[in-house]
Amino acid sequence: MTGRGAGRTEGPPEAQPPERVQRTLARAGFGSRRSVEDLIRAGRVRIGERLAILGDRADPSRDRISVDGVAVPTHPGLRYFVLNKPVGVTSTLSDPHAKRSLASFLPAGPRVFPVGRLDRDSEGLVLLTNDGELAHRLQHPSYGIEKEYLVEVEGDVPRSLARTLVRGIDLEDGRARAVRATVLESSRRRSALLVVLAEGRKREVRRMLDVLGHPVIRLVRVRVGPVRDPHLPPGKTRPLTSEEIMGLYRVTGLSAAAPRAGRT
C-alpha cells in the first residue's frame, strides 16, 4: 500500500444483518457485553447522532457507532496489526529484486497491506491493515501523523543539532523538518537521537543526517501515531488493541470505514 489509491474502499460496504450494539462493541474489543452495557447506560455510545439505549440494533458495516465521540471501526471484515520489521526486509508485499519482503510476515486470514514504507536497512513498527481510508490518512502529509525514530549516528553530535533538525534542512526534493528532535547521548564515535517526523519522504531521516555529516548507523521506528510497543520482538506481528485503533481514528479524524473491496 504505497500509493494514494492503494487499499482505498471502492463502493458502499455490503450490508450486514443488524445486531445488538452490545455484541458489536464487544467484538470490537470493548470487553464483555456487560461492560458495553455499562458504557451505553453512561451515555457514552452513539449510533449516528443519537444516544444508544440498551436493546438497540445496528448494521456494523454501515451504521456509525461511536464511543466518547470517537468512531469505532465495527465492520467485521476490518483487520489491524502492527509488525516489528527486522533489518533486511523490504516493505513491499512483492518485489522480484528483494531477498525478503513483508509477505512472509503477514497474519493468516483476509489480506492486509503495509501502511507506508520503512526502508530495508531500517527496523521497527509497520502497521498492516485492510482499512484503506485509514491507511491513506496515516500516509498523507496533510494529516501530519507523527512517526518517531530512535537513531544511532556516527560521530559526536552537538546538542544544537536537534534545533537544526527542527529548523529544517534543504534536500534535493525540498526542505525537510523534524517536529521534535532530542540528542539522547553523544560520544566521540557514536551518538543517539530521538527524531519525530510528520511526513514520510523516502529515507528522510537518513538524508537529513547525511547532510549534517552524521551518517546513520541504525534507525528504529518506535512509534506510529499513538501506536508503540517496545516489547514486540523483531519479526513478530500482533493485532492492534481497540484503544490503539480508536487512537488512530482520533488522530486522522476518520468517522467510518470498510475493508478494501474484494479483500474480505
Describe this structure in words.
- The protein is an alpha+beta fold.
- The protein has three domains: 19-71, RNA-binding S4 domain (Structural Genomics Hypothetical 15.5 Kd Protein In mrcA-pckA Intergenic Region, Chain A), CATH 3.10.290; 80-142 and 226-252, 2-Layer Sandwich (Alpha-Beta Plaits), CATH 3.30.70.580; 146-224, Alpha-Beta Plaits.
- The chain is built from six helices and 16 strands.
- Strands 7, 8, 9, 10, 13, 14, 15 and 16 form an eight-stranded mixed β-sheet that branches.
- The longest helix is centred in the last third of the chain and has 11 residues, at 242-252.
- The model is unreliable at 1-12 (pLDDT under 50).
Beta-strand percent range? 25-35%
The CATH superfamily name of the largest domain is Pseudouridine synthase I, catalytic domain, N-terminal subdomain
Global outline? elongated
Number of helices: 6
Helical coverage, percent range? 10-25%
Low-confidence stretches: 1-12
Write down the overall mean pLDDT. 88
Distance between the termini: 16 Å
Largest sheet: 8 strands, mixed
Q: Helices and strands, in N-to-C order?
A: EHHEEEEEEEEHEHEEEEHEEH
